[in-house]
Amino acid sequence: MSNQVKTLVKIKHKDRNRKTVFFRGIIAFPAIIFVATFAQSSFSESESWAAGTAGVVALPTLLALVFRGKYPSYVLTFNHAVVELSTRLAAYVLILNDKYPSIEANSKVAVLFPDVEGGKKLNRVLPLVKWFLAIPHYIVGAIYLVISLVVTVIAWVQTSITGRYPEWAGEIVLGTIAYWNRVQGYMLLLVTDKYPTFRLK
């Protein structure tokens, strides 16, 4: 098994529903609102206290790892579900497929976490500095994100007209999603101590 977070998305290149592609932003709005609700902290008025940007439980995880050397299984299950949900939404909004993001897991989109063995495989001190060590990734990731948005606009026009999603666009967009999931897995989800690669794949 990989020691980094792995993202799998089945990209639909042919026979796309041109109407749903053209109105994707409007159609996806309810799903965006639903996912956004997970970003609201249930512990404090400050989102940074208990929830990260993706709505995952971050601070309690850090505290459990540092002081107890454990990764609570219920937190891991929740974080995994939220990341998969966010990835399904990203795949839909960025028009990788026409499958409306379900609130349950499906076979078209999967995010695989490394086996943390309840936290036994993880360093107890490293979580305190991972956010700092990942700074270069924020910069590179922002560049990838801008490129992916430009690529998505081009692919959106082409797919809306022809019903075919370009393969080259899928590689870039999926690579960017996978990249951010790897970075998040390292510095926020804390499911690996392996420093993320800078590659899209």
From TrEMBL:
The chain crosses the membrane at residues 21-43, 49-67, 74-95, 131-157. Keywords: Membrane, Transmembrane, Transmembrane helix. InterPro entries: DUF4389. The keyword Transmembrane helix applies. This is DUF4389 domain-containing protein. The lineage of its organism: Bacteria, Bacillati, Actinomycetota, Actinomycetes, Candidatus Nanopelagicales.
